[in-house]
Amino acid sequence: MSYTKAFGKVIKNEKIGTDIFDLVVKTPQAKAAEIGQFMQILIESKVLRRPISICEIDRAQDTLRMVYLIKGEGTKWLSKVKSGDTLDLLGPVGHGFSKGKNILVIGGGIGVPPLLQTAKEALSADAILGYKTKDYAVLTDDFEKCCDKVLIATDDGSLGTHGFVTDILKEQIKLKKYDMVCTCGPIPMLKAVSEICESADIPCEVSLEERMGCGVGACVGCVCKIKSDNEEGYRHLQVCKYGPVINSKEVLW
């Protein structure tokens, strides 16, 4: 796998929710980007780059959109970047989602953004989006534009269904047959979605959110356990290099 280093010009970097920012950069790397991949952004005064998922790709305009949540010093610094500034980018990185004809995308929290381009490139797509509260609900209008149906769940019931995305999933697969489910979010959510899909015999791909150091498979800091026929019954896989998207049946939850 090859990685391209380039500079990106910031087009916009705007706050769109509670500690959530919408970043658009113009970079030649956009032409090579695929659904479900991410970029490694160099942060001032930090040794390790920060992995930010690609939300939207405009290959004609050479732009990448990345929606991120402030989690620490690195993303806090990134939130202060202004239009016209330049960012040092490495990518696109990782193995992304397969392209599907009739898919259901399921996102939880900051796992929602990586699914937008995936839905856009499908022949037909529905979306189930989960948030803590309505204050964290971002990109709902964007999904409305490219999906046939958008269903929302919040932990406190302040928007959409009061509950979890899995509650909606169980009902939705009774109403419609999907070729594939693509999902990104917290590990407990991914595990639950995977189990429901396996029981319903629906192919499912999960984007794993592990803490990444180098982002190129060198530091082995983002490994997860994958089922194997060896004596231990599992092997370790570097999420940044061989993921972040993996067939849900392969993951040892």
Characterise the protein shown here.
- With 253 residues, the protein is α/β, with parallel strands linked by helices.
- It folds into three domains: 4-93, Elongation Factor Tu (Ef-tu), domain 3 (Beta Barrel); 97-207, Nucleotide-binding domain of ferredoxin-NADP reductase (FNR) module (Rossmann fold, 3-Layer(aba) Sandwich); 210-247 and 249-253, Dihydroorotate dehydrogenase B (pyrk subunit), domain 3 (Ribbon), CATH 2.10.240.
- Helix content is 18%, strand content 36%.
- The chain has a seven-stranded antiparallel sheet, with no helix packed on it. It has a seven-stranded mixed sheet with strand order 11-10-9-8-12-13-16. Strands 14-15 form a two-stranded antiparallel ribbon.
- Strand 5 and strand 6 (63-69) form a beta hairpin.
- Helix 4 (165-175) runs parallel beside helix 5.
- The radius of gyration is 18 Å and the shape is globular.
- The relative contact order is 0.14.
The separation of the N and C termini measures 27 Å
Strand content: 35-45%
- By DSSP, the count of extended strands is 16
Radius of gyration: 18 Å
What is the H-and-E element order?
A: EEEEEEHEEHEHEEHEHEEEHE
What CATH calls the topology of the largest domain is Rossmann fold
| Average pLDDT over all residues | 91
Tally of distinct domains:
3
The CATH homologous superfamily of the largest domain is called Nucleotide-binding domain of ferredoxin-NADP reductase (FNR) module
Largest sheet: 7 strands, antiparallel
